[in-house]
TrEMBL record:
SMART domains, alphabetized: AAA
UniProt protein name: ATP-binding cassette domain-containing protein
Annotated organism of origin: Streptomyces atriruber
Pfam families assigned: ABC_tran
Subcellular locations according to the entry: Cell membrane
PANTHER family recorded: ABC TRANSPORTER ATP-BINDING PROTEIN, DOXORUBICIN RESISTANCE ATP-BINDING PROTEIN DRRA
GO molecular function ontology, one term from the record: ATP binding
Length: 346
C-alpha cells in the first residue's frame, strides 16, 4: 500500500507533477464506451457506465470483488456481448458491435482467462500464438525469441509451462499477447497473488508498453498498483463509476489532507500558531497541521498568511490521503472482504 512517506511531497513537487501528469495522452480515444450495460438474469452488473481512455495511457478500473471489472474487460475485448440497451462502444477506433474482428486484431487480453497450454513449453506456446496471428515462420521465431528474452524466460523456454511459477506464467501470458503487436492491451488483475518483486517487475513491463504508445486497460484490486501506474482511475461500485480521475484528483475527494508547516525557531512557530488558529499544533516538532487539500489556491493563501505574520516556514509538506482512503470511502468496502478475495486468488 502507498506509504505516508511516498504520499508526502513538498509543495513544489506536488505542483509540478500535477501540472505535467504522468504521460501526455494522445488526443484519440483508444476506448470509448457510452452507457455500457450488462445484466445476468436479474443481477445488474454494469449499470450504464461511460469510459474514455486516451491512446497511449494507462487506465485502471478499480473495484471490490465482484464489482464487474472482468465483465467490463470481457465486453470490451468482444468475449461477452453487452446488453442491447448499451450505447456505442468503440475500441481501437472500431465499433464493437459492427466490427468485432477489427477490434480483436487491435487488442491483446491477458488475465484470469489465460491462453497458456501447460503441456507445451514456453517457446511452443509463443510459436503457437505466432501461428494464430499468421506470422511467417521466421518472423514468428524471431518475435518469440525477442519476447522470451524481454520477459526473462529464456532459461525456462524449453520447459513445460505447467511447472512455471505464478510470476513466470503471467510473464509468458503477456509475452504471448504481445506477439500480435496489439495497440491496446487489457490486463485483468495482472499481479494478483504475485510476490512484491514479481509485482514490481510487472509494473516495469507495463511502463515499457506505455513508452511504446500501447494503451493499457488494467483492472486491479491493489490500490498501490493503480496509484503507481495509472494516468486515470475509475472506481467501480454497485455497477456504476463512483469516481474517476488521476490518483491525485481522487485523493482530493476524501478528507484527511493537510499541510504540515515546520519551523526551526520556537518564536516563529508560536507566531505562526497564533496566526493560523485552525491548525493543529505539535510543540515538540515545532510543526503545525493545517487542514486542506494542498491545492495551489490554498497553498498561496497559507503562504500569504505566514507572510502577513512575518514568519517563514522552514519546511512545508503536503499530505494527501492515499488511495485506500478513497477506495473505502467510495465503495463503502470492508477491508476484510477485499483481503479475503485476494487470498482466494492466491
Ligand atoms: N456468466 C455469468 N453468469 C452470471 N453471473 C455472472 C457471470 N459472469 C459474472 N457474473 C457475476 O457478475 C458479477 C461481476 O463479476 P466480475 O467477474 O465481472 O467481477 P470482478 O469485479 O471482476 O470481480 P473479481 O475481482 O472477483 O475478479 C459477479 O456477481 C459475478 O458473479
Amino acid at each position: 500500500m502507498t506509504t505516508r512517506a511516498t504520499a508526502e511531497t513538498t509543495a513544489a513537487t506536488t505542483a509540478s507533477t500535477a501540472s505535467t501528469g504522468a504521460h501526455a495522452p494522445s488526443p484519440a480515444l483508444a476506448i470509448a464506451a457510452h452507457g455500457l450495460r450488462k445484466t445476468y438474469g436479474d443481477r445488474t452488473v454494469l449499470d450504464g457506465i461511460d469510459l474514455a481512455v486516451p491512446g497511449g495511457s494507462v487506465f485502471s478500473l478499480l473495484g471490490p470483488n465482484g464489482a464487474g471489472k472482468t465483465t467490463a474487460v470481457k465486453i470490451l475485448s468482444t468475449l461477452v456481448s453487452p446488453d442491447p440497451a448499451s450505447g456505442e462502444i468503440r475500441v481501437g477506433g472500431f465499433d464493437l458491435a459492427a466490427e468485432p474482428q477489427a477490434v480483436r486484431a487491435a487488442i491483446g487480453v491477458t488475465g484470469q482467462f489465460s491462453a497458456i497450454d501447460g503441456l507445451l513449453t514456453g517457446e511452443e506456446n509463443m510459436l503457437l500464438m505466432a501461428d494464430l496471428h499468421h506470422l511467417p515462420r521466421s518472423e514468428g521465431r524471431r518475435a518469440a525469441a525477442e519476447l522470451l528474452e524481454r520477459f526473462d524466460l529464456v532459461e525456462a523456454a524449453g520447459k513445460a509451462a505447467l511447472g512455471y511459477s505464478g510470476g513466470m506464467r503471467r510473464r509468458l501470458d503477456i509475452a504471448m499477447t504481445l506477439i500480435g503487436r496489439p495497440r491496446i492491451i487489457f490486463l485483468d488483475e495482472p499481479t494478483t497473488g504475485l510476490d512484491p518483486r514479481s509485482r514490481h517487475n510487472m509494473w516495469g513491463f507495463v511502463r515499457e508498453l506505455v513508452a511504446e504508445d500501447v494503451t493499457v486497460f488494467l483492472t486491479t484490486q491493489y490500490l498501490e498498483e493503480a496509484d503507481q501506474l495509472s494516468d486515470r482511475i475509475a472506481v467501480l461500485s454497485d455497477g456504476r463509476i463512483a469516481a474517476e480521475g488521476s490518483a491525485d484528483e481522487l485523493k482530493r475527494l476524501v478528507p484527511g489532507g493537510h499541510v504540515r508547516v515546520r519551523f526551526d525557531d520556537p518564536v516563529a512557530y508560536r507566531t505562526a500558531a497564533a496566526a493560523l488558529r485552525e491548525a493543529g499544533t505539535d510543540d515538540e516538532a515545532l510543526s503545525l497541521r493545517v487542514p486542506g487539500d494542498g491545492s495551489q489556491h490554498e497553498l498561496r493563501s497559507l503562504l500569504d498568511r505566514l507572510d502577513s505574520a512575518g514568519v517563514e516556514a522552514d519546511e512545508l509538506t503536503v499530505h494527501t490521503p492515499d488511495l485506500d482512503d478513497v477506495f473505502f470511502a467510495l465503495t463503502g468496502g470492508d477491508d476484510q472482504h477485499t483481503t479475503r478475495s485476494r487470498e482466494a486468488h492466491r
